[in-house]
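Something for you to look into today, if you have time. Could you write out one complete protein record for me, on any chain you like? The space below this message is yours for that.
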Amino acid sequence: MSETTPAQTDEAPATTAAPGPGESPEVRRQRRMASWTVRNMVYSMLLVTLIVLAWWSMTSSPSTQQQRAPELEQTTNYVVEQAQWPVWVPDPGEGWTPTVLWYDARVADVPTWHISYVSPKGEYVALHQAADVTPEWFEEALPDASATDAQVRLPGPVGEQTWQVWSGPSRGNAETAYVLGPDVTGGSTVAVHGTAGQEEFEVFLASVEAGD
């Protein structure tokens, strides 16, 4: 008996039908995640760029001292016109940044001239000046500070004088203070105070001019 051989055909083996043109939910989810990742990276880069530009604009602009020069001049001219005593105006120069200046009666209701700086070493240095001061004035101008028995010779617009040393809390606005009375200033009490060392106080005071 002869064997029957299966007929040979040229047809390819049957295969599984490919998905239709629509993507599966998993593929769509992966595409969305990729899109979100790129979008977040772009937003992050924009945010960093804005921060860098803001920093650059602050550092590349004129110094705070230059920007405050007109304000400083206008205020000091006003104080000189209003005060009944020679007004002490410091101008310590390069490296010193003026921060606050005013003339009013906010300190114990006594008309007071105030100006403060940040020193080249980053320390706070301020000046309060007023006539007819009271104990309350000292309490507010030199918070939590008290007079000591020490004295020190410091420069100023009236020459080198003997100042009374005050002491306050560490890193406070009156950590160290020096007070000069009206008998040598022309009628006002001057208090310089801050966190600086004596050397920077001397530089600060040496730059003072008395306007009247």
